[in-house]
Amino acid sequence: MRRTFIHTLWVLLLLSMVLSISIGAAIWNGWIGYMPPVEDLQNPIDKYATQIYSSDGKVIGTWNHNKNNRIRVPYDSISPHVVQALIATEDIRFYEHSGIDFWAIGRAVIKRGLLGQTSAGGGSTITQQLAKQLYSDHAESKFERIMQKPIEWVIALKLERYYTKEEIIAMYLNYFDFLHNAVGIKMAANTYFSKEPKDLNACEAATLVGLCKNPSYFNPVRYGERSESRRNVVLGQMLKANYISQAEHDSLVAEPLQLHFRTIDHKDGSATYFREFLRKYMTATKPYRKDYPSWAGTQYYVDSIAWENDPLYGWCNKNTKKDGTPYNIYTDGLKIRTSINSRMQKYAEESVYYHVAKYLQPKFNKGKATKPNFPYTEDLTKKQIADIFARAMRQSERWRAMNEAGYSDEEIKSSFYKKTEMNIFTYHGDIDTIMTPMDSIRYYKSFLRAGFMSIDPHTGAVKAYVGGLDYSHFQYDMVMLGRRQVGSTIKPFLYSLAMENGYTPCDEAPNVQQTYMVAGRPWTPRNGSRSRYGDMVTLKWGLQQSNNWISAYLMSRLNPQQFVALLQKYGIDSPDIHPSMALCLGPCEVSVGEMVSAYTAFANNGIRCAPLFVTRIEDNSGNVLAEFQPRMIEVLSQEGCNKMIDMLRAVANGGTASRLRYMFDLHGDIGAKTGTTNRNSDAWFMGVTPDLVSGCWVGGEDRDIHFNSMSLGQGAAMALPIWGYYMKKVYRDKTLGYDPDAKFDIPAGYDSCYKDSIESGVSVEDVFE
Description:
The chain has about 775 residues and is an alpha+beta fold. It is built from 30 helices and 20 strands. The protein has a five-stranded mixed beta sheet with strand order 2-1-3-15-16, with helices on one face.
């Protein structure tokens, strides 16, 4: 009987061993459960956030799915305190096992399973925990969790087979979700302590490792005391493992929990509008007209040209990885090296915010008490304003969501007039309030908008890009996406056409109002000033004073078709621009980005540079995938360019931009042009220096939102100061290398009034008659 019992036990043991080996082999080969392919195990964490770098090496943002800002950090860039805290707390025998710690499993089974000691610790190794994070879905029951364990053991063994212990530690820390959009040790260190992983001290390391037990429960932001207590437990484990001395332990546990917490999101940080523009630009697909709304013909046209001419546009879909699939900016861990300079970006954002939020907005808001139509002009009727708000209501997210939920139009409209709790934007921070959704639409429309871009005219490198004042609340990009009437900033292009056709800045034209026949109809341009009315004035004076009558007269002597062709060479190639006399006053809608790129021709010897947003793209191992070069086109001859510089300098020296000299104390070589459209709807300023071309637009969301007075609504008041503040900051920062006394590349003794074949001093009229 005894022998039979022993034999039975041996048989059961052997059967158990055979069964275990069979199950293990089945799991190993993927016959039972999910076993990831070997190539995935060799590179299990390929889903890293793409990092966007400034030209001076700063990470200005990331792209990823679900806001998981995971950025890969190698082992040697992680503080030893973090590694020691992790091993001491989670897997003290980490360096002794091969993925499975049978001693720890036995301890867990006996103490936790049989004796019910919940504090006895678990049996999972760091490698098993990594396997669970990588490949196990959330278990819905204890039985499902038990079934997952053997698969995780096998994956852990394979991970140990393919990776060193240091690589496994790094992968674990790179993958773990530390909450608050901080996935991975780099983002956790940035989020909780505003540090890099290599700079974390023992207390900070223990706090983060404490989250590994249960990040929600030990959340240091919500449960400070609980987190501090868990941190001290980790420090105690480090003492037991001899990673710290008793004296160090006693000193560390006495320290209070100190966080330098800051959440990190796609909408936060520097160059938010630029990052979002670049994300859409790089992931664009080939444009097809059917994919665009009927009103988006111009955008389709612009995108089609970009697809053909710009290798960066749609780069992710134009290029493929080794496996033949397109690049994914959310999971492939790319490194995007941009042309943005982090300090210049900061100066630009500060300048836009200071002038618009601190100066213009308060003055604009003064009209609220006296204007029933606020923020709209009093020129609109009540019905027109009602139509505007009705259109805005139907375009809102609330309308879309309720419509999809099955509410009738009447029910949706009614909801817009019921007061509700909401969080709204102010320049002093978001606040909670109660208002109707319709009132919130009016409230948000009252904020002025702005766009600013700064480019190196010799390479096209975009140094600063500000698409608005607050991306979280105003996401429409007024640099590359928004288009507004350009007004008088178009005039230098017209004058450059004249210079290419034999004119000089000294040629004269009559400063009088005239009526021209345009398409069979009389057209009489108006002018904001009657200074020197009736005189013969030089073209240089005409541009300096932004005189509409001189521009119209000049346009009447030139070919409108030729002007449109030249605008296309400047990069302004909207299909909505048609040859006409009125084009000389800038009724066409153009983006800030296009205008700044166009003006680079004046500072670059007549050669226009297209905006260069990215210089290089690398994979997550640093291998170069693509490099981008400046894209240039000759627009003007050297002679024509020199003449234009002479006239643009006059705008700053006594013309409409002269306040640059006395308000901002800028005394170097500056070419400039202001622009103001009808009723002050759009304010522009374009500034050209030998090494930097920058442009700015300021206005309301709708064209009927504007200042009533010219003194506040003109380009020299609304847009020019932003350029002035920006350039003063740039020049003050000597490390940037911009010389405030730099000169344009014009030969010494150059005479802009000299004519090769036509006697100088002849009037415009004589030249063409």
